[in-house]
Specification:
With 232 residues, the protein is α+β, with helices and mostly antiparallel strands. 45% of the residues lie in helices and 22% in strands. It has 2 domains: 118 residues, Jelly Rolls; 78 residues, Arc Repressor Mutant, subunit A, CATH 1.10.10.10. The protein is built from 9 helices and 11 strands.
Length: 232
């Protein structure tokens, strides 16, 4: 397990801060552990602070009145989540749950606000993270509303390749059921789309490993949202 100060210094939220400020952030951090399937916070709960993932994976999701789950984000090591309520003063807008045994750093709201008030560079870093989060939501809304399932899947595979610095092979870090929820569909439809895309020579699927066979076609599919011969 990484040293807590190492995790903090490698988190984009705290990037570029001098050692004394990193030590001050470390001083207010609280370590929390969650088992797979354990709820971290629920929608509507007061935002008493935010988290940074040390290890494991966390899903952020909402549940419709009919009980359908829509995953909004999957966060892994080094990524912050739950930070918006710290500054908005509003409750958590979604639910958070561990999808693997996870160790998190918790930063209490009042202590963190006091730090940002005394550290302008930290406030600027937080602004950058919140701006990135807004951009991620904008892209997700575009994908879910304007693209069919194959276009959403192609977009995710290209994103995953960039995240994993992979040329043509990516590894799914979540289950296919969770991926289906993230893409706004159901597992059966996702499996059917993967089979069709494999049949067209775009991808090759082996368990959680996916080879990107035709990168140009995938990028076109991600951009346009549709491909002849595939319906979402």
């Amino acid at each position: 397990m990484k040293n807590i100060l190492d995790v903090i210094s490698q988190t984009p939220l705290f990037g570029g801060l001098p050692a004394d400020q990193l030590q001050a952030i470390r001083a207010i951090a609280v370590t929390r552990r969650f088992d797979k399937g354990e709820r971290i916070f629920s929608e509507g709960q007061p935002g008493s602070g935010f988290y940074v993932v040390m290890s494991g994976r966390i899903k952020i999701f909402k549940v419709s009145a009919e009980g359908k789950e829509q995953i909004l984000h999957i966060f892994g090591p080094g990524e912050p989540f739950g930070e918006v309520p710290v500054f908005s003063g509003k409750p958590f807008p979604a639910n958070a749950e561990a999808i693997a045994p996870s160790q998190l750093l918790f930063f209490p709201k009042q202590a963190f606000i006091a730090l940002t008030s005394a550290t302008p560079s930290l406030a600027l870093n937080m602004l950058a993270v919140l701006s990135l989060r807004l951009r991620q939501f904008t892209v997700q809304i575009e994908n879910l509303s304007l693209k069919e399932v194959p276009g959403r899947l192609a977009s995710y595979l290209i994103y995953l390749a960039a995240e994993q610095a992979a040329a043509d092979t990516v590894a799914l870090t979540i289950s296919k059921g969770q991926l289906a929820s993230l893409l706004g569909t159901i597992p059966e439809t996702l499996s059917r789309m993967m089979a069709k895309m494999a049949g067209m020579g775009l991808i090759e699927v082996e368990g959680r490993t996916i080879r990107l066979l035709d990168r140009d076609a995938l990028e076109n599919l991600a951009r346009t949202g549709k491909l002849m011969g595939i319906d979402g």
